[in-house]
C-alpha cells in the first residue's frame, strides 16, 4: 500500500513535514509502523499550492524511493506552501512509472490514495468506460487510484466532493459485486481544490487502512504553551496523515471507520461516509 499526508494552514517549508519529524514521511518510506508494507519505495510525489492564493498546484513526482532522491530534498528545503499533499508509494501491481505516482492533478485539483481496488484488472474496463469522455484524455497512468479520481470528477467532485466520492465508491462496489469480487474497495483518500481539503477513510470490509488527524491547534497551544514549533502555527492549521509523525501526547486522533472529514476555514467537518450507487 502507501503512506500520505495532507497539510493546510500556516505556510511552512515542505521539509518541516517530509524530513524533520521523528516519524516523517521520508522515515515512513523506509520503515512504516502501521502500513501493510514496511517499505514504500515505488515512487513518491508532492503537490503544493502557492502562498499567494489558490491556483493550479505545482507537482513533483519520481519513480525512485523518496529517501534517496536529491531533487526532492532540494525542493522540500526551498519551497514554502500553505497547502500541500505528499505521498510515498508501494505498488499493488501496476507499473512503477511517473504517471502512476501520486498525487494526481486535474486543473486546480489534487488527489491521492492509499489502498486498492481488488482484482482491478478484471474491473478496470467497466470502470474506465464510466469516466466522462471529456475527462478521459487527461488520464495518463494505469493505476486504480487515478481511475478513482476521474470517476469522482465524472460524478461531480468539483461541485459536491463527498457525494461524488460516495458515488465513485458505490460504482466500484457494484461492479465488484457483478464480477464476484469480495470486498472490492479499500481506501484512504485526500483531495483538494487549493482551498479546502476532503479526506475519506473507507473499505468494503469495514477494516480500513490507518488514518489520523491532528488535534485542533488551539488546544495544542494550551497543552504545550512552551512548544516553539506549535506557537508559530495558526489555529486554522490542520494535518491528516496515514501515520502520526511524532509521539506528542494528545496531538493525534484516529479518523473513525467509514468517515469523511473536511478541512476548511472556520469549523472543520467530520461525518459518516456512505457509498451510493450512481
TrEMBL record:
What name goes with this protein? Glutamine amidotransferase type-2 domain-containing protein
Fetch the CDD domains from UniProt. Answer: YafJ
A Pfam family name for this chain? GATase_4
**From which domain of life does this come?**
Bacteria
This protein's species is Actinoplanes missouriensis (strain ATCC 14538 / DSM 43046 / CBS 188.64 / JCM 3121 / NBRC 102363 / NCIMB 12654 / NRRL B-3342 / UNCC 431)
Domain called Glutamine amidotransferase type-2: residue spans: 2-244
UniProt keyword list: Glutamine amidotransferase
Cross-referenced InterPro entries:
EgtC-like, Gamma-glu_amide_hydrolase, GATase_2_dom, Ntn_hydrolases_N
